[in-house]
Amino acid sequence: MSALALDDVTVSYDGVRAVAEVSLALPRGEVLAVLGPSGCGKSTLLRAIAGLELLESGRVLFDGADLARVPTYRRGFAMMFQDGQLFSHLSVAANVAYPLRLRATPRAQAARRVSELLDLVGLPGYDRRDPATLSGGERQRVALARALAGDPRLLLLDEPLSALDGPLRERLATELRAILQATGTTAMCVTHDHDEAYSLADRLAVMRAGRVIQEGPIASVWRAPVDTETALFLGYARVLADKAAMTFRERVPIDALRATGDGGPRSAATRPAPAIALRRSALSVADRGPLSGTVTSARATPEVVRLIVEIAGIGEVDAVAPLRRRGASGVVEAGPAVGAEVHLAVDTTRLAVISTSLD
Ligand code: ADP
Ligand code: MG
User: Fold this and answer.
1) What average pLDDT does the segment 32-48 reach?
2) Cα 41 to middle of ligand 2, angstroms
3) Is 39 in the pocket of ligand 1 (CB under 6 A)?
4) Measured in Å, how far apart are the chain's first and last C-alpha atoms?
5) pLDDT at residue 201 above 90?
């Protein structure tokens, strides 16, 4: 049985639906990421689960029990937000101990638990620090330790890393996942960042305009987005449709493209060709490959040269060329220049087949 189950949950503000008929199941010990653009209803959904919003209809269940009459503080859930919301007048240790104090945990036991939790989040010895002296990343670690202190049966995370910048966010996402796994925490994290969702979660639900558009194990959603908009939101750089998709499939060995769905009741003849979504690194310059075309743009980055290549019958696609370093000095040779003819190899693990035709 799922730990958390949402059954047709709808939440409205003044008659306007912010969350519409959302059904989701989250197994115990797993992390579910809810990914969607700003304003699509993510925070509203989390608040509804926490008991902070009234449901217009539907049910929130935990271990099979309907929570309709269970107030927020008795649900056994913890929440964590983008800005941590630490108590500024309390030390780090007192912040982390807060849920323990609410339960009147004996002092010595609470102190032991606080130091365990600070170790867990990578802040040993931070006990006496004032939250105002912490970096953004450190504040979020303290907020996480505090959220875990009460041994929540469900942790609800609302854009927990969104206030942090690039490399730190990536590192913390990986650490957060490791901590949730090590503690066996069942968690639901909402975010607008596909990389964050990918690093954190076992399962993924894609939300748009209040609705869950697609849900499943993270790898399956990534491999087969339900439509173009979802693919682009998942970070695919380009989606080939119609003729371009057909030409692509003619040139790239068809069995290398994972088939998705069973084609439904329509015959193959009437079904539109599935679209092909390409990540930026799906195509790379090689000595030979199934595709070839003309470079229309080339931009060097520290790791690769990013190209746009015009392929007859397909159109412009993104591709990468390796940086070639020469000699001990490591001088970088220019990659293919604009106008060059290149062959492209295809990494089929970096593309997805969109079978929008199945409805
Ligand atoms: P997200 O977290 O995905 O950015 P929200 O759940 O915050 O989205 O908001 C979803 C929609 O509900 C938005 O259109 C927002 O303006 C609206 N909304 C959120 N909170 C309230 C509120 N308290 N009163 C009225 N409308 C709200
Ligand atoms: Mg929000």
Assistant:
1) 97
2) 7
3) yes
4) 29
5) yes
Query: Helices marked H in the chain — which ranges?
Result: 42-50, 92-102, 107-120, 136-149, 166-182, 194-200, 218-223, 228-233, 242-251
Closest approach atom of ligand 1 to CA 210: 10
Is residue 40 within 6 Å of ligand 1 at its C-beta?
A: yes
DSSP string, 140-206: HHHHHHHHHHT--SEEEEESTTTTS-HHHHHHHHHHHHHHHHHTT--EEEEES-HHHHHHH-SEEEE
- Please report, as a single letter, which amino acid is at residue 278: L
Q: What is the pTM of this model?
A: 0.89
Instruction: Work out the number of other CB atoms within 10 angstroms of the CB of residue 228.
Output: 17
Cα of 194 from ligand 2 centre, angstroms: 15
Specify the ligand 1 atom closest to the Cα of 41.
6
- The span from the CA of 155 to the CA of 151, in Å, is 9
pLDDT, tens only, 206-255: 999 999 999 999 999 999 999 999 999 999 999 999 999 999 999 997 55
Ligand 1 touching residue 191 (CB < 6 A): no
* Phi, psi angles (nearest 5°) of residue 17: -75, 120
Q: What are phi and psi of 292, to 5 degrees?
A: -150, 155
The CA angle 138-141-146, to the nearest 5 degrees, is 130
7 pairs with which residues across the strands? Answer: 59
- Token couple for 287: 């000595």
Residues 321-357 have pLDDT tens digits of 988 776 676 666 677 999 999 999 999 889 998 976 4
Q: For a ligand 1 pocket test, name from 11, 13, 49, 54 the mutation site with the most ligand atoms within 8 angstroms of its C-beta.
A: 13
